[in-house]
Structures are given as C-alpha cells and as structure tokens.
Amino acid sequence: MGIALAVAPVVLVTLLIGVRGVAAMRTTSDFLVASRRISPLVNSAAVSGEYLSAASFLGVAGLVVKDGIGALWYPVGFTAGYIAMLVLVAAPMRRSGALTVPDFAEARLNSPALRRLTAVVVLVIGTIYVVPQFRTAGLVLTAVGGTPYWVGVVLAGAAVSVTLALGGMRAATYVQAFQFVLKLLLFLVPAIWLVLQAGAVNRTDALNPVEFTHFARETPVRFEVDVTMEIREPTTVRRNGVPETLPPGEFTAHSQDEVVFGAGAAVPAVRGGAPLGGAGWQRPLLDLGDEGHPLLGTWAVLIATMLGTMGLPHVLMRFHTSPDGRAARRTAAITVALLGVFYLFPGVYGVLGRVLVPGLYLSGATDTVVVALPYQVDRGWAGGLFTALLTAGAFAAFLATSLGLLLVMSGAIAHDLVPGGLRRLRIAVFGVAAIMVLLALRSAELDAGVLVTWGFTVAASTFCPLLVLGIWWPRLTAAGGIAGVLTGLVASSGSILFALAGPELHGWVAILVQQPAPWSVPLAFGVMALVSLRGRPPTWSTAAMLRLHLDEPRSSGPRDRSSTVRRLARLLSR
C-alpha cells in the first residue's frame, strides 16, 4: 500500500500536466518542440530529467555492486557528452530550424533518402533505450511491492503514452522539469540518511572493501531471472525450502527460486562479474565481462557514452525547443552543472549496497539496490518511508526518459516517414508505446545498463558523425551522409546482435564485439568523409553552413521557422 501511495502521485501529476498541455497544442510544432518557447533554466531541468533514466537512477549504483568502482566511469561519460554537445552541436542544431534530427539531415543535405534513413535510426535507438525503462519499472515494483512484473511495465507505458498524446512536448517539458527536481531530492536526501543510519562499522566496510568470500549471516537470495554460478566448495543451502548440498561446479538458479545460504557458507562466483569487494572490484577501471582488459573496457564505455550523448535523438530534440541558438547553448551549460550534482550520489548507494545487500550480486537484481537499501538499515517506519520515496523517484526516472523517447519515435513515424498531422502523431504515440511494452515484457533477463550503453553506441556510430561533419565540414555530401550513417548502423547493430546471439567470445575481441564504439565510430566517420571526398558538395553548402553558425538577430524572438525546412532545402538547391 505504501508503495502504491508513493507511485500514484508521480503518475497523477504526470497525467495532470498532460491534460493542461492540451489547450496549448494546436500544430505539429506545438506537439514536437513546444513552439520553441522554453527558457534555458526550465529546458535544462527538463533535459536533465529526461536524461537521468533508469540507468542513472538505479543502474549506475547496480553496476557498482556488480562490476566495482570502475562503473563510475559511466556517469563521467554521460556528463562529458554534454560538454562536447555544448561546444559542437547545441547552438547550430537550434539555428537549423529543424523539428527533428531527420529534419536537420534533409535541410542540410537536401536528401529525402537520408531523412528516411535517419528516421529508421531514431526508431532503433529509441527501442534499445526505452525497453530498459519499462523493464526496470516492472522489476522495481516487483522488488518493493510484490506486484507481478507486467504491472509496472504496463503502468509506465500507459502513463507515458496518455501524457504525450494529450500534451505533446510542452507537457513532456514541464513533467520532466518537475521530475528532475523530484528525482534529485529523492536521491540526495535518502543517500544522506543511509550514510548516517548505516552505522560506523558499515561505513568503514564500505570505504575499505575486502573480497566477499563467506556469508556473515544466514542470507536468503530470491532470483528473478536464471543465474549461473560457480560453486567453489560443497555448500549446504535451502532451495525453495528443501535442504540440499551443492557440489563444486556450475549451479543454475532458476527464475522465482529462493536459495538460503547459511552463516559461514562460501559465496559462489557469478559468471561475468568481478568478485565482490576483491582486487578487480576495487580497481578504478571497467573490466567488462571479466575479460582481463580493463583499460580497453573503460575506453569503450567512455567513447560510447560521451559521443553517444551527442547523437541521442530525444536529447537533440530538446535544443529545438529553445528560442534561439544562444538559449540552446545556455541550456547545455546549465545541464552539465545539474548532472554533476546528481552523479555525486550513485557511488554512495553502490558501495553501501556491496556491504548491506550482497545477495543482489548473486541474484542478478543489482538494478534494485537503491530501493533495497533503506529496509536493510531500518526495519521500521523510516525504512518503509525511504523505500517508498526512492521508488517514487525511480518511477519518475522511467516516466521522464520514456516521454522523450516515445516523442521522438512517434515523430520519426508520423512526421518523417509518413507525414501527417496531430491525429497521426497521437496514434503513433499509442502504437509505439504498445510495441515497447510488449518488448519489455520479454526483456526481464536483460541488463538495463548494457542495453542503454548499446543505445549510446548506435547513436555515437550514426548521428554523431552526421552532426559533427554536417555542422563543421562544408564538403559533406548526401551520398557520404547516407553511406556513413548506414555503415555505423550496420556495424554497431550487427555487433550487438552478434554479442546476443553469436558464439561466446573471450579477451579483447569479446569487449570490442559487446561494446563496438571504439571501432564503429571511426569507421562511420571515415566512410562518411571518404565517400564525400569522391563527390562534389552542392553549390549552396556554404549558405547552409552559414545558417548554422551565424547568430540569429535578437529581435527574432521565438518565431518558429521549422515548417519551412523542406522549402529551404529546395531553395538552396537552385
């Protein structure tokens, strides 16, 4: 009941803001970019709320428990990406007058084919990114409220689709700004309370980790997904209430199994995870999959997250809501500061989680460590209260990010692939949401952090080269843009699919297949440049570049020029 009371206000406020947005929405521009009237402060709060997804609110702390201190490189990459966006992309994207990334592609290169291709890329990135939001909503409500997995998934999908269909970008903006403030407070205050409440011994253990080899007390572990572990010595457990002795070797716990390890029992090793608290866990580098190449793994994640941020379509669309290029640049600058404050705290939850809820390391449910911690330090009303507050903050993270993702995906369908009016956009919102819910229902076993990083990888391999070269290199051609985007899409998506369905790999090859950004991004840049050099840029390319880099007159105000993007491309081609 307490969890329902915590989540219900978040959902209700989201829907109420959506209802208020109906009166202000009359055109496609209103729906997609809120008529470009959002101030830098509100916009930066909305960008931060949209960007701080399940991977940030829950996933980073879970990755610290699972992979160690090196997981803190994820928020470094997330935040550094906005610095690159501030310098290279924010203001020119707004000056383009586009509504969407495909809009920008056609305005810059006058290529309907490139517009359709980039719309497909938007759908690919959105799918990879939005599924873990709905998935984690289901897992969190299951972990803290005991509801079936599908309840959280369907609730998140319904709240997001109704809000967007009613209020569009204007509703999404104010929902995301409100939810950023909510998430920051509901992340910061419980973190301080946990540090104070955990006690001196636990704080010392968190700051001075040692390898977790034996259970200090009887520990029940409930498995939500199938997990394969390596038993190091004969271990007596109770499995679903039945005593048994596990022999050395591989042991698979199935979904919904409950295994109780006795005090003093040896801790099994988890395949693909660093030994909890061991030397590898303490190392400030990311040894992905425990493959023995931590520096390569760290660089792979940094390249994907930093360059991928510049190519995330739901983040890029945010800058189109600014009145002008100066406001877009200020939005990016304020966003860096807001993200920097938030990312001070995931590490606190991660190191305390290693000490207080080590069972999550075995069950594979490390994504729920944030909401599992309060009950471990206080079994009374305070623990229940902070669990409810963190659950509300987590649900706000799912909703805020999903709003932006569903908006760009519906825009890709109903504005770029099959252009239509407001009615078609609203229908697209419900259709996309339904498909994402169905996919999320089948994705409980996938790692949210890995999925989100893959979304960054595809964005870094496709839109990052297109935007950087399209904004800063006048010799880019339509053929080069198409070839580069297609190469990046095939390379990154193909590598990810091979990692999911192909044979098991080891060593540095496994890292470069699982996280292909170190080679897929340079490949896309190279192909885009080489194909463009073999052609001839159009005569109007200089005029198109000037439009991106010259400041707008201050008197221009928030006047919307996006409806003339196609007309501009035709005029420039003369």
TrEMBL record:
TM region(s), chain numbering: 72-92, 113-130, 150-168, 180-200, 296-319, 331-352, 385-413, 425-444, 450-473, 480-501, 507-531
Gene3D superfamilies cross-referenced by the UniProt entry: Sodium/glucose cotransporter (1.20.1730.10)
PROSITE patterns from the UniProt entry: NA_SOLUT_SYMP_3
Membrane topology reported for the UniProt record: Multi-pass membrane protein
A Pfam family that the UniProt record links to this protein: SSF
GO molecular function: acetate transmembrane transporter activity; symporter activity
One biological process term in Gene Ontology: plasma membrane acetate transport
Record's keyword terms, sorted: Cell membrane, Membrane, Symport, Transmembrane, Transmembrane helix, Transport
Cellular localisation: Cell membrane
Keyword hit for Isomerase: no
Superkingdom, taxonomy of origin: Bacteria
Similarity annotation: Belongs to the sodium:solute symporter (SSF) (TC 2.A.21) family.
Stated name of the protein: Cation acetate symporter
